UniProtKB/TrEMBL annotation:
InterPro entries: DUF2314 (IPR018756). Pfam families: DUF2314. Residues 40-146 form the DUF2314 domain. This is DUF2314 domain-containing protein.
Length: 163
């Protein structure tokens, strides 16, 4: 199985959400990219949960009193795998989502920090809205935080309210 790349587990999450220009974590041993196997059941369940709850993000990212928000898109690498990278949303239009790249990609051809891309809803692998120390969504971050608690972001993960 080909490993998927989840770009910037902790560093990218905090930088993208906080708008930081520097890493809030001084530990250079923390890898900016985490490889995940395609058949990773926990990660696949997290991505499915993010897609199932994407409507909460869509309905609230502009109106919720938040400290930050972001979407993670799965994008093809030069080797035909997928790299999952955080974007700042710009607009939702039908099945398409446009966002601005919030991280430096590891291996996505012709994509760099600040570039704008449009993808479909099926390309979303995670989303998050940060309110204080609470993170709505962040399903892939939850999985990685459980696996690497020493480098986990200082967030309380909460599920969106159900109606």
């Amino acid at each position: 199985m080909n490993p998927r790349l989840l770009t910037g587990f902790v560093l990218s999450t905090l930088i993208a959400v906080c708008g930081c220009s520097e890493s809030p974590i001084a530990d250079s041993s923390v890898p900016p990219v985490v490889s995940i196997e395609d058949d990773d059941s926990e990660m696949n369940a997290a991505i499915a949960k993010a897609q199932e709850t994407l409507s909460f993000f869509e309905n609230n990212w502009k109106t919720m009193d938040s400290d930050g928000y972001s979407l993670k898109f799965a994008m093809p690498t030069s080797g035909g795998e997928l790299e999952h990278i955080w974007f700042s949303p710009i607009k939702f239009e039908g099945d398409e989502i446009t966002g601005e790249c919030a991280n430096d990609p590891e291996d996505i051809p012709n994509l760099k920090l600040g570039d704008v891309r449009t993808v479909t809803r099926n390309d979303v692998s995670d989303w998050m809205i940060i309110v204080g120390k609470k993170c709505y969504g962040g399903y892939t971050i939850r999985v990685l935080s459980e696996r690497e608690p020493d480098v986990a972001p200082p967030l309380e993960f909460v599920d969106p309210p159900t109606n």
